[in-house]
Write a structure and sequence with these properties.
With about 260 residues, the protein is mostly helical. It is built from 13 helices and no strands.
Length: about 260
């Protein structure tokens, strides 16, 4: 929890340095959507970030990456439910194929686990995390008068605030692990790369090519995560990982290729 809180605090500091004046100008507008941004920060960044780190205690980085491949399917269901987004039968098949791939990696390719409903704790936590981030992604479609930087800054602020109670509880319980000197380099990279720069790049890409095409690139997470986990962490890439990754990417391909022309 200390890592989660430091992550968003560091992002807030970077935002204040690079866009502090713009954020201050937008405060009157931001206040109008305080309930919305609080919920988005709590669910999307705070909740997702917390669960993804806790899941790493119980499962591998390869599994974490592949399970995130379920996010497009979750976003599709949410978009259809709340925004009446059009979807065809072939796309539903694509979603089903993607979910099958996630199930295979969650049970480590062992069918008996599915029969006995015996899932890895970390994989279940990761599935919940993906559900939360999927809800956050759908929530981004809500109409509002917030600019990209105002929205991002307010969501990051509430993500930081929402993690503080658990961070304080962790400290009071004597379970806080203080970073060693070499670990601060990793924390700095977490703040700079996935928390700050990736978000800024995503905002810029949405302006250049639109949200639909920008969102497709999220589907590359399972590919990059699997490759990096094997190369940097030395994790084993089993046959069921390959099958799962193939199904996840195939489902995404089917969904994107056969989407309605007006989608």
């Amino acid at each position: 929890m200390l890592l989660v809180s430091i992550r968003w605090l560091g992002t807030l500091i970077l935002l204040s340095l690079f866009a502090g004046r713009k954020i201050m100008v937008g405060l009157p507008v931001i206040r109008q959507y305080i309930g919305y941004t609080f919920l988005m920060g709590l669910v999307g960044l705070g909740g997702f970030g917390t669960l993804i780190y806790y899941s790493a205690y119980y499962t591998s980085a390869v599994n974490i990456g592949i399970i995130q491949g379920a996010m497009p399917a979750i976003v599709l269901v949410g978009s259809c439910w709340f925004f009446r987004t059009s979807v065809n039968f072939v796309q539903i098949v694509g979603v089903a194929v993607t979910m099958l791939g996630v199930v295979i990696v969650s049970i480590n390719g062992q069918l008996e686990k599915l029969m006995s409903l015996n899932f890895n704790t970390g994989d279940l936590l990761m599935l919940i995390a993906v559900l939360l981030y999927g809800a956050y992604t759908v929530g981004l479609r809500r109409k509002h008068n917030l600019s990209s930087i105002w929205l991002f800054a307010s969501v990051v602020f509430w993500a930081f605030v929402s993690t503080l109670p658990l961070t304080i509880y962790e400290f009071v319980s004597g379970k806080t692990v203080w970073p060693e000197e070499n670990v601060w380099i990793i924390i700095g990279l977490i703040i700079l790369l996935p928390s700050f720069l990736s978000q800024i790049c995503f905002i810029a890409s949405v302006k250049l090519i639109g949200p639909a095409r920008s969102g497709v690139f999220v589907n590359l997470v399972p590919v990059f995560a699997s490759f990096l986990a094997v190369q940097l962490l030395g994790e084993a890439f089993e046959m069921y990982h390959g099958l799962s990754l193939f199904l996840v990417l195939s489902g995404i391909y089917i969904f994107e290729k056969y989407k309605p022309l007006n989608a």
